[in-house]
Amino acid sequence: MDAGLARDLAAALPVAIPALGGMWILLLVALQRGGELRWPAAHTTILLGLSATSAIGLLGAGSDQEIFHGALLVDSQALVFHLIFVLVGILTVLSSVHHLEAAGAPRGEFFALILFSVSGMTMMAASEHLLTLFIGLEILSICLYVLAGFTREQVYAIEGALKYFLLGAFSTGFVLYGMALFYGATGRLDLRGIASRLARLGEEPVDPLILVGAALLLIGLGFKVAAVPFHFWAPDVYQGSMAPVSGFMAAGTKAAAFSALVRVLFVGLGDPPVREHWIAIVSALALLTMILGNVVALAQQNIKRMLAYSSIANAGYLLVALAAGGRTGEGATVILFYLTVYALMTVGAFAVAALPARGADGEQGSTLAAYAGLARRRPALAAAMAIFMLSLTGIPPTGGFMGKFYIFKSAVNAGMYDLAIVGVLASVIGAFYYLRVVVQMYLREPGADPIPVSLTPAESLGIAMACAGTLWIGLFPSGLLNLASGGL
Asked: Which pTM value belongs to this model?
C-alpha cells in the first residue's frame, strides 16, 4: 500500500470507524433474530469507544494532517469536536435501549443511525472544503430525519419528522446557494482558497456575492442550531421524538453545526473586510435567540418543549462566543468548552425526562407535574436532575456556570458589553423555569396515583456519567480548557 494512502487512512479512523461500524450494525441486525437490542447497543458503544481512542491517539501526536487531497483536515479542533460527538453518542445509546422497547420500536437500526450521524458530524468538523462539509451535513440530516420519526406509530413523531424534513430540505437549499455564490465570486470552494482571494481585495469594497453567500450559509446553519428566527421546528420535533433522540439532536446537531460555523467564519471569512459584517449579523442573532428562547420557555408545561426552548437559548449563548471570537480569536476554545458541558447536562436532562414519559399514557408523563415528589420516590434520580437544571441555569459549582462565565468573559474582552449584559439577564430569566423543575421534585407532594419511574442499569450509568462530568468540569475546568485549546 502506498505510504501516503496508509497515512490518510490512519488519520481518517475517527470518521471511518463509525461509518463502517454502522454497516456492521445493519448486518448484525439482519443476522440476529428476535429484535434483541443489547448486542447492537454493546457493539455501538465499543465502536464509539474505538473511534474516540483513535482520535485521542491522533490528538496526542499533535500534528495537523490534510488527507484525501485536502478533503478533510484532521487537526486538534476537529478531534476535540469528534470526542464531543462520541460522548453524545455513547450517552444516547445507554439511555435508549430500554426506551426503544418501551416505545414499541425495538429495532437495532437505531444504533446504526447513531453511528452514521457521528460520522457525518465529524466530517463537518474536519472539513475546510465546502463540498465535504455539505456531504457531512447531508449524512447527518438524513439520519436525523429517520431518528425523529423512529416511533412512527405515534402521531407527534410523524408530525415532527415531517416538519423537520421539509424545513431541513429548505435550509439545505440556502447552504447550496451560498456555496454557489462563493464559487461564483472567488472560483474556489476550499475555505483557505476563499480567504486568500478575499485577502487580495485589500481596501476594496467586498463583493456583494460574498456577503449574500455568507448570509445564506448562516441561514442554513442557523436552522441546524435552532437560532431565532430559524427555530420554529425545534419544539415540535423535540416533543414528538423519543426523549433520547431529542437529547441527541439538541447536543450533537448543535455541536456539529457550530463546528461548521467556526470553520467557515474563522477560516474562510476571518479577514477584516468581511468579518465585521458577519460579526454584526451573528450578534443580532445571539440577542434574539437568548431573549426569545428564555422568555418562551417560561410558558411551557411540557418538559421536552421547555428543554427545546432551553436549547434555543443555549444556541444564543454559543452565538455570543462565536461573535466575540471573531474579534478576540478565542472563540473556538470557548465554544468547545461550553459544548462539552452542554452535551453532558442536556443529554442527561433528556435521559431523565424519558423515564416518567415511559411510565405514562400519552403526554401526561412529559408534563412538569409528573415530577412532583420525585425526590421522595427516587432521591438519586431527583438529585441528578437537579444538578442538570442548576448547571443549565449557570449556578456554581456546576460546569454550566463555568461555561457561561467563559462565554460572557469573552464578550467583555471583545468589547461586546451589550451581549454580555443581555446574556446575564437572559440567564436570570432561565433560572425561573429551570428551578421550577427542582421545586416540583423537592417541594411538591406527589399525586394520588404517581407515575411509575423505572430505571435500567444502562440508564443509571449514562445519567451518572453525565452528572459526574457536569460536576467535575465545574470544579476542575482547567483540564477541559487545555483540551479545548488543543492540548492533552
From this structure: 0.93
pLDDT grade, residue 362 (50/70/90)? low
Q: Tell me the three-class secondary structure of the chain, residue by residue.
A: CCHHHHHHHHHCHHHHHHHHHHHHHHHHHHHCCCCCCHHHHHHHHHHHHHHHHHHHHHHHHCCCEEECCCCEEECHHHHHHHHHHHHHHHHHHHHHHHHHHHCCCCCCHHHHHHHHHHHHHHHHHCCCEHHHHHHHHHHHHHHHHHHHCCCCCCHHHHHHHHHHHHHHHHHHHHHHHHHHHHHHHHCCCEHHHHHHHHHCCCCCCCCHHHHHHHHHHHHHHHHHHCCCCCCCHHHHHHHHCCHHHHHHHHHHHHHHHHHHHHHHHHHHCCCHHHHHHHHHHHHHHHHHHHHHHHHHHCCCCEHHHHHHHHHHHHHHHHHHHHHHHHHHCCHHHHHHHHHHHHHHHHHHHHHHHHHHHHCCCCCHHHEHHHHCCHHHHCHHHHHHHHHHHHHHHCCCCCHHHHHHHHHHHHHHHCCCHHHHHHHHHHHHHHHHHHHHHHHHHHHCCCCCCCCCCCCCHHHHHHHHHHHHHHHHHHHCCHHHHHHHCCCC
As a whole number, mean pLDDT of residues 99-112 equals 82
